[in-house]
Structure formats: structure tokens, C-alpha cells
Amino acid sequence: MTYIHDTLEGLRHSSPAQSEFYQAAEEVLECLRPLLESDPQYHDHSIIERIVEPERQIMFRVCWTDDAGRVRVNKGYRIQFNSALGPYKGGLRFHASVNASIIKFLGFEQIFKNALTGLPIGGGKGGSNFDPKGKSDAEIMRFCQAYMSELYRHIGPTTDVPAGDIGVGAREIGYLYGQYKRLTGRYEGVLTGKRLNWGGSLGRKEATGYGAVYFAQNMLADRGEDLRGKTCLVSGAGNVAIYTIEKLYQLGALPVTCSDSRGTLHDPQGIDLETLKRLKEVERGPLTHYLTYRPDARYLSREDDPGEGHAVWRIPADVAFPCATQNELTVADAEALISNGVTCLSEGANMPTTAKAVDCFLDARIAYGPGKAANAGGVATSQLEMAQNSSMQQWTLEKVDNKLQAIMADIYRSCADTAAEFGAPHNLVLGANIAGFRKVADAMIEQGVC
Ligand code: NDP
Ligand code: 2IT
């Protein structure tokens, strides 16, 4: 199967210095080997070569003025990766680390994730290297307006529908939406993750975290277990982490950690959810402030722990939910989790586990739910928001949550069944990649060369 190797080599030459994208592409293409061997049509239609190439990549300058009156410049991105299944759909990330490789890996993953939801959405992603940390509300607004001043001409409710990701929540979606409306004069479902009183969906804010927990529930149920009484590790302290923690409590589990870029918070009594929400959603302050409300908790600073792994993964527990960022979980972390007896891991973040650490989990036969399956609840509920917008309706929370639970159960079933079909029933990475790919590839073949 030399063309998989050749395609990956080709990417390294045509798109140099994109390590995160190569990592994501290599994982998917390696998983496709058994499918490509058994079904030559994908090779005949050059689907592999076509699927790794974005349909369109937009890069632009974003100029805005800070509170001191200085003009600042950032890079803006939107990658429209694949529209075989529907309009491009995927979040926007505002973080200092953003570059072309990160946006490309996220857009690539989004193709297969969106396919797994079974909903009519293609794959896209965008963002900026704008760093929201320490910015005033007025600066955030001016940046969002400047970013949308270019983006608006490339998006629309039936062409490309952005949403949030790291650094982009309901506040930013509001400023982006206001600017889109000002520029186009149209009030329409061009963004998801909107607030409830102007077109948002009940349950969207919670959906990624809740979905990652529902995915874990499905994996455990297949092994005759459930989450009740289980001690859980959660990383991150943003949107996905907070609603993972909320759902874990609702299902009788005990989440004892969360984390941010500076370190890990460990509260053996269980993370106090109301305090965490107040700190992160209202005050937008650092996680260390938690200790003033809960002095028995401890904050393990990364500065004091310069080793290979991360403190959050060394705390003994039963189930783990990485919900911060890519490659946050290394081989050292995987070994610590496995030796402490973790039996299940569900990825709320995108590609949080390094390739070698994924192999550790698969070799150890723990229940391992890869991000493109486990965190698909967020984008799935975004599509439910699009459906409500286009029919001018607002559904109840119960209706949205019932649909989310059904979608997560279906994703799990299709990953597990596909893994079994290819002789590796424990390998949901293989199952997710083949199941997602098949849907997109079949649509591409049926739509001809384009
Ligand atoms: P938020 O911005 O709300 O929170 C991000 C959290 O991750 C923060 O606690 C942040 O800490 C931490 N973090 C970010 N970057 C780093 C880094 N380089 N090193 C260590 N910690 C970091 O983002 P979300 O919760 O929305 O997103 C978290 C993950 O979930 C991302 O991988 C995202 O792609 C994924 N995801 C999000 C979805 C959504 O609907 N929002 C849907 C599906 C996946 P600090 O504040 O210190 O930076
Ligand atoms: O990675 C993701 O799936 C998201 N950030 C959510 C995308 C969306 O369109 O809701």
C-alpha cells in the first residue's frame, strides 16, 4: 500500500512544517489500510489524494486597535476542507499558538467527526493567533469585529457555519454575529453557539462535555459497567471541561480534577462546580483563585513539575477525560494512567493524546474513545441549532438532550461495529476513522470529480 506512504510524504513536501496536520493525517490514513485493501474503488477515484487536500484555505490580515490606541495585527484563518456531506461546519479558535498546521489538523478531523454524527455537515475550521488573555471586553469586541470584517464574505447559513472552540464562547460569537449582521443586513443562522435569546439552542453550551460523558457511558455499558461511583480525572477548565464535570455529577461519578495551562487543580472531595463556573464563566480569572474558596484543594503548578508528564494524569482514578488541547497527554501520562488502573478514557478535546500514547491505550485494551467520536456532541448540537434557525423554531432542552444522547449512542455503535467488521473490536480509533471516511468518500464518488 505504497500510496498511503506516498501521500503522506507528498504532504510533507507540499505543505512543509505542519506537524499537527501530519499527525492527524497519518492516523486516519494508517487506519484506512484494511478498507483500501478490501475495496479498490477508493483508490480508483483517488479519494485519498483528494481528501487530504482542503477545498479552500483563506488566510487574512486582522487589524484592530487596542485600548491604548495602538494598531495591532493578527493572522486570520478559515479552512473549508470538505463539503461532500453538507455546508462546511466547525469552530473558530482564538489562541496565541494558532498557526496554519493547527487549523488544518482541526479542519481535517472535523470532516470525519461531522460524518460520524450522521448529520448533513461538511468539515471546516478557523481562528486566529489573537491571544484573548488579559484583553478587555472592548478589545475582544474590536478584534471580533475586525475578524468578521473579512470572514463575512466567505460564510453563510448554507455554505459555511462557524462556531466556538478554544477562546471563542458565547461572548465572542455575539460580537461576531453583530458584525455579520451589520455588514450583510441578514439575521440568519450563520454561526452556532449563539445565546438563547437571539437564536441559540438550548443544550449547545453543555453539548460537547455532556456528549463526551455519554460516549464514556456507552463504552462502559458494553463492558457491563457504568459511571456511578467512579473517580474521574478531567483536564482543562473551559467550556468542555466544565460541562463534562457537570454531567459526571449527574451520573453519580466523582470528578476530582481540572486544569489550565499553568497547572492542575486537585480537589479530592470533588471539584466544586459552582465555584468553577463562577471563576471561569463570570470572573474569567485564573484557576488558582479556586483555593480561596476551597482551601483543602491543591494546585499543582507546572513550573514546579518540569518532568515529561502532567500532574493531572498521575492522580489515581477510574476514568479520564482530556478536555484541554492537542497533545496534552503523552506516553508518560498514558503509562501513569494505565498503571493506576484507569479503564476508560473519553476525549473531550481534539487530538489530546499523542500518537504513541494512543498505542499505549490500545495495547492496554482500555476503553478508549477518540476525540473525533467522543467530542462530536458539540458539533452535532450545532447542527440542531442550524435546524432550529432554518425552521424558525426553538426546541425544548429535553428534545435537544434526547437527540444528543441518541446521536452519541449511534456514533459509539457505528465505531464499535466498524471496528468489529475489520477484526479489531476494541479499536475505536480504527472504527471511527473507517466509519467516518466511508460516508465522506462514498459521497465524493457519487458527486463526481470536483
Ligand atoms: P476553552 O477556551 O473554553 O477552554 C480551554 C481550556 O484548555 C482552558 O482551561 C485552557 O487553559 C486550556 N488550554 C488551552 N490551551 C492550552 C494549552 N496549550 N496548554 C494547556 N492548557 C490549555 O475551550 P474549549 O473548552 O471549548 O475547548 C477545549 C478542547 O475541546 C479543545 O481541544 C477544543 O478543540 C475541543 N472541542 C471544543 C468543542 C466546543 O464545542 N467548544 C467541541 C469539540 C471539541 P488556559 O485558560 O490557561 O489557557
Ligand atoms: O471541534 C469542534 O467540533 C468544535 N469546536 C465545535 C464545532 C461546531 O461547529 O460546533
Question: Can you walk through the features of this model?
Answer:
The strands form 3 sheets. Strands 1-2-4-3-5 form a 5-stranded mixed beta sheet. The protein has 2 domains: 2-188, Leucine Dehydrogenase, chain A, domain 1 (Rossmann fold); 205-369, 3-Layer(aba) Sandwich (Rossmann fold), CATH 3.40.50.720. α1 (2-14) packs antiparallel against α2, α2 runs parallel beside α5 (100-116) and α16 packs across α17 (428-446). It is of the alpha/beta class and 450 residues long. Helix content is 48%, strand content 15%.
**Ligand list:** NADPH dihydro-nicotinamide-adenine-dinucleotide phosphate, (2Z)-2-iminopentanedioic acid
CATH superfamily of the largest domain: Leucine Dehydrogenase, chain A, domain 1
Question: What is the CATH class of the largest domain?
Answer: Alpha Beta
Largest sheet: 5 strands, mixed
- Please state roughly what percent of the residues sit in beta strands, choosing from under 5%, 5-15%, 15-25%, 25-35%, 35-45% or over 45%: 5-15%
Count of helices? 17
Question: Globular, elongated, flat, extended or rod-shaped: what is the shape?
Answer: globular
Order of helices and strands: HHHHEEEHEHEHHEHEEEHHEEHEHEHHHH
State the distance separating the first and last CA atoms. 25 Å
Give me the CATH architecture of the largest domain, please: 3-Layer(aba) Sandwich
Radius of gyration, rounded? 21 Å
Q: Any key phrases for this structure?
A:
binds (2Z)-2-iminopentanedioic acid; five-stranded mixed beta sheet; five-stranded parallel beta sheet; 48% helix; 2 domains; binds NADPH dihydro-nicotinamide-adenine-dinucleotide phosphate; alpha/beta; Rossmann fold; 450 residues
